[in-house]
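Revision sheet: structure tokens.
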Amino acid sequence: MKLCRFSVVCVLSVIPCLAMRAAAEEDFPKPYSAPCVERENVFEFAEKPAIKTVGPDKYEITFAVKGNCDATVAIVDETGTVVRHVASGVLGANAPAPFQKNSLKQTLEWNGKDDLEDYVKRADMMKVRVSLGLKPEFDKLLGGSSPKNLPGYVFGMAISQEGVFVVYKGGGSHGHAGVRKFDHDGNYVAALVPPPANMPQEKLGGMGYVEYEKGKFGLQAPNVNEMARDAYVLPGVNGKTCADQQPVIIGSRLYFVESGTHGSASAAHYINTDGSTTLEGMSGYDFFAKPQPHTQARLAASPDGKWIYMTRLGSTMMGGESGSVVVRWPADGKEKAATFVNKSGKPGSDNDSLNQSMGIDVDAQGRVYVSDGFNSRVQIFSPDGKYLKTIAADRPTLVRVHQKTGAIYLLHAGRVEGKSVGRLTKFASFDSPKEVFHVDDFVATSFALDSWTAKPRLWLAGAVVSLSTAGADGSGPGIRIYEEDGNQLKKIADFDSDAKKDGGASFIGKFSAALVGPGGKITCDPTRETVLFNNHQLFDLKTGELLGSVKIPAFAYDDMAYDKRGYLHVHLNPGFDSGPGVLRVDPARVSVSSGKDGQKVLYYPEVPYDYGVEAPPKYSDPRKGILPCKDQPGAKYFQDGIGVNMMGDVAENCNVYYAPKMEDEGAKLADAGIAEMKDRNEYVGAGEGSYADFMKMMKEREKQGEVIYFIPRRPGIPLVGATIWTYKRNGELKEEAAVIAAKHIAGVGIDEKWKLYFATSMPKMFGKRHFLAGQGGTFGKKLDQGNANPFTGTMIKGGENGVMFLKKRAPVPTDQMPDRGPDLMGLGFPNAFSEADWTWVENAEWLYAGASPIQYTGCTCPTSRFHLDWFRRTYVPEVYRHSIGVLDANGNLILHIGQYGNFDSWQGPKSKIRVGGDEIGILVPRFISGTDNYLCFHDWGERMAVLKLNYHTEESVPVGK
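Predicted:
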């Protein structure tokens, strides 16, 4: 039996199959290209570090090593804080300055100044620290780590003798679904979706993969394409497809269905209750010949496991009808579904009809119980569909039947002193359906009954679930477990309370299980060793303590970045705030108050840029001096990154959609998300898109005298898409459109030499193949062309004079293309691969393949952010292999951090399932930030992890020795 250690999620299948499965080593290109190299894992000094004074304010640092490892040199004070970041990188042929190339012995100079070019007052009190071999280690989780703190909301529950299976889901358009198992007492057992890291390959049928190195597989979703976008794992129930569901267990299989809307099928799927999968279960089968909507399906199974019953057929977005029929189909999928109750399909009130059937269950004798909402009753039918009996109850919703006693438990409406309340009533049995007791103030959107405990136990969760064009959402309490005690229900567990207790004072509530726009971003403050989560919750990286909620004079903002003076630079959202711009605030001048929840509110006041402009208030104080950016909102409003170096110089992404007299170019990009959603039947709106409204707004601004920026027309140059503008620390514009990158990017960085870093949504080319072409597939399937070509973006560092993309297929054509192979593949939509989309990157220092997740086109709400530290090391998210790639300033690969792991592998060496190697389990490291001592990343919208940046070997020597 072969055990695989993965690197999982979903990837973008994009291009038609370019090649069959690769076999030779040359078919597995490294993500970098010459002259870039990898470090040698030899971390020993041949000569220990030494420092000597060679003149006034001039010091010489020397050391020697035994191999071309990565070395990091810093001047530190008596507390170990870095005063001057001297050098870091992989030694050898491509060593970054100021290291000497091709030398194991190094001689470096220090001028006695700190990073801000001020002389250190007591240089003799400093130390030189030389560290070999970056070695990140798991440190802690922030905000709570309890498995009962289910991300998003409870989507559905099912109980068998084996245990309790909870499906949770994130809200909005991009929320994902996962599955966790608990025992009958509510104790956590395992995370099943995504699959455990120790699951053998042969038990992962139907799951996708990326073979990123020979014999090394990154586990992906059934649709490998999802890696680039939302990282969905379960098919057909994510995002805005389904609101919630009542899944069902048959034997060792957990069945669920797609919604039949938004491009999904009326299909049934299953996973095994140990987290393993099969090709049959992941592929699913259609139970209707043509899709029909059932966004809140309620499933039940016959006691022999042969039949699956479903009600709430017809439930759709925007509060549509929940249906008036019950259908059933054989669980093996060999026949299509047939109507079981109410064959007319029309709402009715006779005994063979239904009107808004809200819930369903089956007893041990095979009788089918249906909550008939608008008829205020529960209808009971025989296994062959004949009417048997009615139980009257006001507006029933969910019904459950005890599999041993036959007792019936019903959620419905009740009246107390003339007011409507939620009520749970127990009825004795089918033979004697008399009320035994009822309990008021019981409301739940998900309800499961445990028939395998000594006393009946009821699992309930949620209060409201909704589905609209904005997506699915749920609210209300988490899981509560009640045990029947005489004619009462005694609460024996409350997941929310348990999770809060486990998280202590740093508990922040539920993680989202969804990441959109600015949601879930993290920003570390290297001067104070803190991290901002979701742009407002502030944590101490050393202690994990939640320090408070940060407030600034702004309403809507996308990205943040700190400089070494301690200022925080904030990229305003051009659509939801009063307009585009970058705001600067000062955490050192914080004022503290108390919020409604008792949490500290930390207000950071503005520090105007010298060359800033005034901006009107937007639910905030007026802004006195923001950077006057040219950001254009397009359809999505938010921009895609800001970078700030230690000195406080700024690089900001400015998306440009305005292309006068060539409006088609702007419309294609600005409305790409809407067009993609329309193609998937996910967009519901009155208009044809938002670009027309955008152009109307731009022309109105022009009439008012505003100069609207557009990219100058030049042969081969894209006219719309991502640009990067740079500003000096005083706010003065340094370079307009220093980068013209086309399409969109994910993140911006700038170093002290004004070099720019960004990730583009185009895959790196190796000859005529893009990175990972032909390396994708499906476990259990010999050849799956749909999964063959995973999509990733490319990390780029620019040179001295900006970066410009040249496209073979440009609005203004050119015959003067570079005399070399293409650098990037300018993909449009899946299966859009041709030489016409080849793209060249002019004036780049290096390109690094595999940056992901990053959306190929369409809706770019799911985004990511890399991290550029003050040693000029770049930390790149690599979802295709579930790692973080670390590069030095010359693009050399220092190491990959982490490998595949689900929730059970997220606690480092103390994990329930250890992953080996560096013991860092990772799923989707979407947002990354850090300091000199810590690296922090937000993983799949479900946790915030902190790594300690240690080294294999380290030596220090006093300057004054």
